[in-house]
Write a structure and sequence with these properties.
Helix 6 runs antiparallel to helix 7 and helix 12 packs antiparallel against helix 13. This protein has a domain of 42 residues. The chain contains 14 helices and 13 strands. Helices cover 59% and strands 9% of the residues. A hairpin with a 3-residue loop joins strand 12 and strand 13. The longest helix has 20 residues. The relative contact order is 0.12.
């Protein structure tokens, strides 16, 4: 397994490097003016907006190369942290200095792309974001900011460069001061960005995990104290079957449960559990992990993408869900020993069925056909992160 894993990683890394970390994005059409208008119309009247959205969806799924006529390749702030973390792991496993150099290059590029906020710094998507509230490109959001902090803190641990710690602290200040919040007694929920009020469960888990990590390394207990309040919200939002909806339970319209966002919550709760040994977290992890493996892992170790979704999608396999399943199961294997074998089997299936001979991974498999576009943000970066983590885990 380790040999085939190394071969897959090297092929993927070679392709990533050849592209200089840039690619088209699967949100290209949706972030265009036409895409934003269609989503806005759909949110107001599902029946009027559905034909337009359906047309865009079909183009995106079956004519993905058509985006080359209208859009250009860009480097995503969501992808760079995954690349940096993967390179740090390859440096640790293979002891080749070239990987350390590449990791630092990714961090330096990420630092330049940071956006100053009222109280700190954050990172956002490189395109206009057609959410319930229109989010302009580069608006800092907590998920991407948390991923960036993960990479900077890893850089600090490896290089001892205090600049990385300073950046992480500024990001923590952004999280506790600039995000909108909903106070619910002793617990609190934070918004995705400073300009919206959407309460996403995975976004809160990103925030809590980031604040714990910064608190531990900086010795500033304010961050952990605030994270504890967010943690209470995340635990409260868990359903009886162990699942979490994407958004707050009270926001019932178009709410859904899927693979990758479930993984995010499990990953972050586990990381926090390692810091505080809170038994409530362990109970939530046991319920959540049981739901996850029984719901999203197929008999052949391919991964389901959606569990509950308000509209038909036709998606059988999504590369981001494959990546997060591998990473999540490898991460949680110390608590759930069977998870490591699941991670290995899913990785084997994904490398066999979704990796191109050129090294990149395909975007999605539908009930009719396969979308082979190689998106950095959605596919290559998360897979690079997942496979390098599994390689490191197997080495242990």
């Amino acid at each position: 397994m380790k040999k085939s894993l190394k071969t897959s990683i090297i092929k993927l890394e070679n392709w990533i490097s050849s592209q200089r970390y840039s690619s088209y994005d699967h949100y290209d059409f949706w972030s265009s003016k036409f895409g934003i208008i269609s989503r806005g119309l759909h949110s107001k009247n599902r029946y009027l907006g559905f034909p337009i959205m359906g047309f865009l969806y079909l183009i995106d799924a079956f004519l993905p190369n058509s985006r080359m006529l209208f859009f250009k390749k860009e480097i995503s702030c969501e992808a760079l942290p995954y690349f940096a973390r993967g390179y740090f792991r390859l440096y640790e496993v293979m002891r080749e200095n070239a990987y350390l150099v590449k990791a630092i290059q990714c961090l330096n590029l990420l630092a330049k792309k940071g956006v100053e906020t009222k109280s700190g710094i954050g990172w956002g998507l490189h395109f206009d974001w057609p959410s319930r509230t229109f989010i302009p490109k580069n608006t800092p959001c907590i998920t991407i900011t948390s991923n960036a902090v993960d990479a900077f803190l890893e850089g600090y641990k490896v290089t001892k460069d205090t600049t990385y710690m300073e950046i992480a602290i500024k990001a923590a200040e952004f999280a506790i001061k600039d995000l909108n919040r909903k106070n619910l007694g002793r617990i609190v929920a934070v918004s995705y960005t400073p300009i919206c009020n959407t309460l996403a469960i995975n976004a809160n888990s990103f925030c809590a995990k980031m604040l714990y990590d910064v608190s531990v390394l900086s010795k500033d207990h304010r961050y952990a104290a605030f994270a504890d309040r967010i943690l209470g919200y995340i635990l409260q939002q868990q359903n009886a079957d162990g699942s979490w909806f994407y958004r707050d339970k009270s926001q019932n319209t178009d709410n859904f449960i899927d693979n990758l966002h479930t993984c995010f919550v499990l990953e972050h709760l586990y990381s926090i559990f390692l810091e505080n040994s809170n038994q409530r977290i362990k109970v939530a992890l046991e319920k959540g992990y049981s739901f996850f493996v029984n719901t999203f892992i197929n008999n052949d170790y391919s991964c389901k993408h959606f569990y509950k979704y308000p509209n038909p999608t036709g998606v059988k396999v999504d590369i981001r869900s494959c990546a997060e399943t591998i990473y999540c199961c490898a991460l949680l294997s110390s608590l759930f020993p069977d998870a490591l074998n699941i991670a290995k089997q899913v990785a084997y299936w994904t490398m066999k069925n979704m990796q191109d001979p050129c090294g990149f991974f395909y975007f999605r498999s539908y009930r009719v056909g396969k979308n082979k576009m190689p998106y950095m943000r959605w596919g290559q970066a998360p897979m690079f992160n997942a496979l390098t983590y599994l390689l490191k885990k197997l080495g242990e």
